[in-house]
Design goal:
The complex is a heterodimer.
Chain A: E1 2-3, E2 6-7, H1 11-26, H2 36-48, H3 50-83, H4 85-100, H5 107-114, H6 118-142, H7 146-154, H8 159-169, H9 171-196, H10 200-210, H11 214-243
Antiparallel strand pairs in A: 1-2
Helix pairs in contact in A: 2-11, 3-4, 3-6, 3-9, 3-10, 4-6, 5-6, 6-9, 7-8, 9-10, 9-11, 10-11
Chain B: E1 19-30, E2 34-45, E3 49-53, H1 60-68, E4 75-80, E5 83-84, E6 92-95, H2 107-111, H3 113-117, H4 122-135, H5 151-164, E7 169-173, H6 181-197, E8 201-206, H7 209-215, E9 218-223, E10 228-233, H8 243-246, H9 250-263
Helix pairs in contact in B: 4-5, 7-9
Classes of the chains: A mainly alpha, B alpha/beta.
Bound molecules: adenosine-5'-diphosphate and magnesium ion (MG).
């Protein structure tokens, strides 16, 4: 980012926003916006409570459950679409519809199917994360170099060994899909729990807002953001290690 | 490449002109519309280097892939060592025009991939691959990745991989077309030397007349649309001694002119 010809690091923008938040918060105009410093002060208090730990446990469990399922199903679905034309013709449209559909509107339907507990949250995370993983995997599979596959055939590769070639050469795209899925999954876990609102962070959110603990409310949002960005960064690191060959496929 | 081995005396070589690959009446029609090959009858002799030469689009790659078992002919039969070809086999190894290396694997792992697929143990296949990596002049690069190598070096890895499986026939589809001129010349000279150590049958696809004459015992000229055998030339060039000298050899130069005169009609 450049400002009046001076290079400014990206994080500077964040600082500006925080300052603005602090400034607006000080006026005590809106009950909804306590100053940023107050939110930060509330952080240890939020993290220290047993209800937070319980919420974190449930959130993490349903998040990892939903994401794990989405990774497995997404990669399998993407492979199927990339390898079998007929399957692609049938599935491609639906996957794209689900990818861009307003999924939050679907959560009530999921709730009817799975009840008011963790399964609904897991299903929501799954629905948010799986489609992008499937589509990116498909893209990676479709772009597998034809001559690499011919090479495998000519040296006598079995079906499984061919599949391994395909998976490894699609790995950069698969990882890109998982990174997007990780972020979408966090959206899913929050939205799912908010709507269910009697478990996990959803319960905390409703507890804080009902008692006008706005600093706590925002502190919880900060924690969730940090969690999502931290995870995405982790996948990013992993991607960088494989990326060198993404551009190197003939 | 290290090539200090004595040149085998032609007298004690195997009986001349025993065919290792026989091609009988091959037709190849793509999608029921494009006739790529028409009525190809050919024999490839054991221990010889045969070039398939012709302008772009005349069906060279198609023919080579049919010989390799990577493509099925529309009709006709290919026999290797007398047995009909139904697919790829361990007695044939392919060197790809675009190298076809695994970008996630090291030079050594790429070179030993054919052996890995054959189920050879890790220790043995790495030893054998190491030997051939050195033979193609890449000693010291075993742990590098393809993206760290130049085009010429990548093709050497492809060659090492094909050599490592110890096939009788090495098939190369324009192996030098993706590398620069100096690298190509060096590669051609190295191939002549390599043939002195590796007693193999080579089939080389090329669109370069110079390259075909420089390297081949036999040149099969293909005519385009549909691809047919138009002529077979057997250059009788002495390739012992200085590989540079061949390029100034009058026989070599005359033959290039002759072939060019014959091919001219096809290339507008
Ligand atoms: N998969 C394919 N489908 C349809 N036509 C093809 C296919 N592959 C090659 N051809 C056609 O067959 C002819 C011979 O192609 P090819 O064997 O690649 O020629 P060369 O290697 O001599 O350049 C060309 O006219 C080409 O367009
Ligand atoms: Mg070709």
């Amino acid at each position: 980012m450049e400002l009046y010809g001076v290079k400014v690091p990206k994080s500077a923008a964040l600082l500006v926003w925080i300052a603005l938040w602090e400034f607006v918060g000080r006026f005590e105009l809106l009950l909804l916006f306590p100053p940023f410093s107050e939110v930060v002060m509330a952080l240890p208090e939020v993290i220290g409570t047993p209800s937070f730990l319980e919420a974190a446990r449930i959130t993490l469990l349903s998040y990892l459950g939903g994401l794990g399922l989405a990774v497995v199903v997404g990669i399998a679905l993407g492979l199927l679409m990339g390898l079998v034309r007929r399957a692609d013709q049938i599935l491609n449209m639906w996957v794209n519809i689900f990818l861009s559909a307003p999924l939050s509107a679907l959560v009530p339907v999921i709730m009817i199917l799975f009840g008011m507990g963790m399964p609904t949250v897991i299903a929501t995370v799954f629905m948010f994360a799986v489609w992008i993983i499937a589509l990116d995997t498909r893209a990676g599979v479709v772009h597998t170099s034809q001559s690499l596959l011919e090479m495998g055939t000519s040296f006598g590769a079995s079906r499984t060994q061919q599949l391994k070639l395909i998976l490894l050469s699609a790995l950069p795209e698969i990882l890109a899909g998982i990174r997007l899925g990780v972020v979408r999954g966090v959206k899913g876990v929050v939205i799912g729990q908010l709507l269910v609102s009697i478990i996990g962070v959803g319960a905390l959110f409703s507890l804080y807002s009902q008692n006008f603990l706005m600093a706590h409310f925002w502190a919880l949002i900060l924690i969730l953001f940090a969690f999502a960005l931290g995870l995405a960064e982790l996948i990013n690191r992993l991607e960088e290690r494989v990326e060198y060959y993404a551009g190197n496929r003939a | 490449m290290t090539m200090t081995h004595p040149i085998p005396d032609p007298e004690d070589a195997a009986p001349v002109a025993s065919a290792i690959i026989e091609v009988e009446g091959i037709h190849k029609i793509y999608n029921g519309a494009v006739t790529a090959l028409e009525n190809i009858h050919l024999e490839f002799n054991r221990g010889e280097l045969t070039s398939l030469l012709g302008p772009s689009g005349c069906g060279k790659t198609t023919l080579l892939k049919i010989l390799a078992g990577l493509l099925k002919p529309t009709s006709g039969e290919v026999r290797v060592n007398g047995k009909p070809v139904t697919g790829p086999g361990p007695e044939r190894a392919f060197v790809f025009q675009d190298f076809a290396l695994m970008p996630w694997a090291t030079v050594l792992r790429n070179a030993s991939y054919g052996l890995e697929l054959q189920g050879v143990g890790k220790r043995e296949r790495e030893d054998r691959a190491r030997h051939y990596v050195a033979e193609v002049g890449l000693a010291g690069f075993e742990d590098k990745y393809p993206h760290e190598l130049s085009g010429g070096m990548r093709q050497r890895v492809g060659l090492a991989r094909a050599l490592a499986v110890n096939a009788d026939v090495l098939m190369m589809d324009e192996p030098f077309s993706a590398v620069d001129e100096q690298t190509r010349r060096k590669f051609q000279e190295d191939l002549i030397r390599l043939r002195e150590i590796e007693q193999k049958t080579f089939i080389l696809v090329t669109h370069s007349i110079e390259e075909a004459v420089y390297l081949s015992d036999r040149i099969v000229l293909l005519s385009p649309r549909p691809g047919r055998v138009s002529q077979i030339v057997t250059p009788n060039i002495d390739r012992h001694g200085d590989p540079e000298a061949i390029r100034r050899n009058p026989e070599y130069l005359d033959l290039i002119d002759d072939i060019w005169a014959g091919l001219r009609d096809y290339v507008e």
